[in-house]
């Protein structure tokens, strides 16, 4: 049994596992930050996708994309705005931030 293509879980699965650039191009335009962030972490994206995501208005997406090896867009991020959540490399599939140990020493809490 497969999950419906329009579910968040399905989109996260495809954003994480796909090697189809057409599919990744569509997913990188998702209105869902976690889907775009999962695409930014996908090693199969090309430089065009990585560069677009490096300019994403959501820091959690743009920071990860700018660190991608295929990203050619250079960004300087002020260290004071980079939180544990922004640097987090946990898989978006099943991500639960509540009680995260990385937040223990952070100013953020849930």
Overall description:
With 110 residues, the chain is mostly helical. It has one domain (8-103). Helix content is 42%, strand content 0%. The protein contains six helices and no strands. The protein has helices spanning 8-17, 21-27, 33-41, 47-54, 59-66, 84-87. Helix 1 (8-17) packs parallel to helix 3.
List keywords for this structure.
110 residues, mainly alpha, 6 helices, 42% helix, globular
Question: Topology, please?
Answer:
Blueprint: H1 8-17, H2 21-27, H3 33-41, H4 47-54, H5 59-66, H6 84-87
Helix pairs in contact: 1-3, 3-5, 4-5
Number of domains: 1
Number of strands: 0
Mean pLDDT: 89
Extract low-pLDDT stretches: none
Question: First CA to last CA: what distance?
Answer: 34 Å
Amount of beta strand: under 5%
Main sheet makeup: none
Following the backbone from N to C, one meets helices and strands in this order, namely HHHHHH
Q: Report helical residue fraction.
A: 40-55%
What overall geometry do the principal axes of the alpha carbons give? Answer: globular
Helical/strand content category: mainly alpha
List the total number of helices. 6
> How much is the radius of gyration in Å?
14 Å
